[in-house]
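Worked example

This section walks through a single chain of length 295. The input is the sequence exactly as stored; nothing has been trimmed or padded.
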Amino acid sequence: MKGITHSKAPYFFIAPTLILLTVFSLLPILVALIISFTDMDLAGLADWSTISFVGLKNYADVITDPIFIKAILNTLFYVVFGVPFVILCSLAIAIMINYGANRIFKVFRVIFYMPSVTNVVAVAVVWGFLYNPIFGLFNYLLEWVQLPAVPWLQDPIMAKISLILMALWRGIGLNMIIFIAALQGIPKTYYEAAQLDGASTWKQLTNITIPMLRFAIFFVSITTMIGWLQFFEEPFIMTNGGPLDSTTSVALFIYRNGFQLSDFGYAAAGSFVLFIAIIVITLVQFRFQSKETDL
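Given that input, the structure is written out below as tokens.
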């Protein structure tokens, strides 16, 4: 009897987590999957009899929707340019702070981390004023050095770049902390041995630091890419997807159709397209990481 009791003990410890995961994650995903095969709208919430099963029609419509296709291209633009910049800048700042001899570098750790814990709505509003074409600070500085004003949020291409710059500024802090923790876990004996062999700082960086950070880089790459695939708050607050849907992300497209147009079935189909894309990209990254580990 005592052995049976002990064998059941682990299940009692993990039961709360499994229950929360089922109720708040797995069950909503299953409900959203069912909704994606229907024409559910706002009226369907009050009267379920008005909901009809439409099969794969929502998926066929969403993957041929020109706005959704444009949202996919915009999201890819964010990922291709935003993710590498965030990782490189976070790693560079982490290395400078970790190996900086001056105490001022410790203060920079707090300065760079503060944007990550600041409310994204407040940040987006402030940056919206900075990007203002008439009285914004950035154009004022450009005018001060006799350079032409830049249409930060008015030009389709420049608007995407502007959002990436703001998200880059906000996203560096958390990744920087992860990299600093990983850097502090590298044994100093490696660097001492390399210095005795006459290795330069660059050689130490490329042959010791970067290889020892491969798991931290992999983790940051996964989480950063997933975050950029779900890019929503910045375009929603600052541009509302404009101009000409040039900053509309897939997440913003889903929000519009689900919460503004009340086309829940259509929005659910779009969300599962994004869900599948995130899973596929994550699995591909895991595959590449496993190959590098085997080597």
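What to look for: The mean pLDDT is 86.
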